[in-house]
Specification:
With about 325 residues, this protein is α/β, with parallel strands linked by helices. It has helices at about 10-25, 65-70, 85-90, 90-110, 145-165, 190-200, 220-235, 255-265, 265-270, 280-285, 295-300, 310-320; strands at about 1-5, 25, 30, 35-40, 50-55, 75, 120-125, 170-175, 175-180, 205-210, 215-220, 245, 250-255, 275. The strands form 4 sheets. It has a 7-stranded parallel sheet with strand order 5-4-1-6-7-8-12, sandwiched between helices. Strands 9-11-13 form a 3-stranded mixed sheet. About 45% of the residues are buried. The model has no long low-confidence stretch (mean pLDDT about 95).
Length: about 325
């Protein structure tokens, strides 16, 4: 089995790569080749099968065709410009998030000759826009209020149409905010949700730019990889024609995040959070969804944490070796 990961140098891409290398197989089939693609070189781990690292811009002419010419059996499309950057740079956001996605889909379509890979597309809860019901289900209409959400919503529609036409077997997964993200902050507007946990646990101060009553939906990096693996192996006849699914998540307020941090790490760690309101971020967050009914995804076997305490504990276990700075 050949697998292609676009966005392999990103945090979720790296963790997905690690999981695939550890497993050595997917859906009972041994992995023979793994292609890791991104605009910067992805890490090349040691593996019992061939690993190829490709560095390029998927939106460049002809690049998508080169990526799929070997006919990978599974394609994970994680590549994207994140929310804050897509909002700040309209042209770049549409070029990468929309044009790159369509070029990839078309490159697969043009191969024809019975080629029909499984394609897993990472969408986002940003496809939904206010006003919201108490809990957002899969039936809630897509009315994104950001350029990033618009680009992801178009990708969802393309995935459904290309799947309907038989060009590939697509599954779109709407990721909640992945928290706690390891490493340095990226340009995502939601980055503070991770930083107010990550930095205090590492002995550093963190800036909170929004009020404590802001509520949002989260899942851990470990769950994000689990979503991808399950989407790549599920019997898609169970999904039916509605190929885009909202993933399970934990809905908590910022205050509840901080209280979870206090329970696990103590008052001194929680005191490292510094409140500095940012009107721009507050304005963006005001239009974000807060709670989801992911019953459909859960009935199909997708799983996430059930408490924010669990998310913090997983970060300490997976990224900090079980320790933190008290």
């Amino acid at each position: 089995m050949q697998i292609l990961i676009l966005g392999a140098a990103g945090m979720v891409g790296r963790k997905l790569t690690e999981r695939l290398v550890e497993a050595g197989q997917l859906n009972g089939q041994a992995i023979s080749r793994l292609v890791l693609h991104d605009v910067v070189p992805a890490d090349r781990p040691q593996a019992p099968f061939e690993i190829t690292v490709r560095t390029s811009d998927v939106s460049a002419p002809g690049e998508a065709e080169r990526l799929v010419e070997s006919r990978p059996d599974v394609v994970f499309h994680l590549a994207a410009i994140v929310s804050g950057e897509a909002e700040a740079d309209l042209e770049k956001g549409y070029r990468i998030n929309l044009d790159g996605t369509r070029f990839l889909f078309d490159a697969i379509r043009k191969i024809g000759d019975g080629y029909r890979p499984r394609l897993v597309f990472t969408s986002s809860i940003a496809v939904f826009g206010a006003p919201f019901p108490q809990a957002i289900g899969d039936e809630f209409f897509l009315t994104p209020l950001t350029s990033y959400g618009t680009q992801k919503a178009i990708g969802e529609l393309l995935l459904s149409d290309y799947t309907r036409r038989g060009f590939f077997d697509g599954v779109g997964i709407r990721l909640p905010t992945i928290c706690v993200r390891p490493g340095k902050p990226n340009k995502a507007a939601s980055g503070f949700f991770s930083s107010i946990i990550r930095e205090p646990l590492s002995g550093q101060d963190a800036v909170l730019p929004v009020p404590d009553d802001v509520r949002h939906a989260h899942a851990s990096p470990r769950s994000a990889v689990g979503f991808l693996m399950h989407a790549a192996t599920i019997d898609t006849a169970r999904i039916g024609p509605r190929r885009n699914l909202t993933m399970p998540s934990v809905s908590v307020s910022v205050a509840e995040q901080i209280e979870a941090l206090r329970r696990i790490a103590g008052d001194r760690v929680a005191a490292r959070i510094r409140r500095e309101p940012d009107p721009d971020i507050m304005r963006m967050v005001a239009g974000w969804p807060r709670r989801f009914d992911a019953g459909r995804a859960e009935s199909l076997g997708f799983k996430a944490e059930t408490s924010f305490d669990d998310i913090i504990r997983l970060h300490i276990e997976d990224e900090l070796g079980g320790n933190f700075v008290r």
